[in-house]
Write a structure and sequence with these properties.
alpha+beta, flat, single chain, 35% helix, 3-stranded antiparallel sheet
Length: 85
């Protein structure tokens, strides 16, 4: 059985670059896809689903981080702080 993380990655890779994917609350089941955020939200609402996780598909998988360093993953605040230094 595939891990939940691999199922999410496969769903994202199967979607067009820069599109949006709506996952059910289990984090793995795709409930809608769309070219824009608004289109995806409309599709989710049409399905009558309220609890989803919306994820934007990266423009390219060439530069995606596949693992974290010893400090773990950076938050947005951490990354912005590094730019100031």
């Amino acid at each position: 059985m595939k891990s939940e993380q691999m199922r999410r990655v496969e769903a994202l890779k199967a979607s067009p670059p820069n599109s949006w994917v709506a996952f059910a609350s289990d984090g793995c089941t795709v409930v809608a896809r769309g070219a824009t955020f608004d289109e995806t939200v409309e599709a989710v609402r049409a399905e009558g689903i309220e609890d989803v996780v919306l994820v934007r598909v990266p423009p390219s998988w060439d530069t995606m981080v596949t693992s974290a360093g010893p400090e773990g993953f950076l938050t947005i605040e951490d990354a912005e702080g590094e730019e100031d230094e």
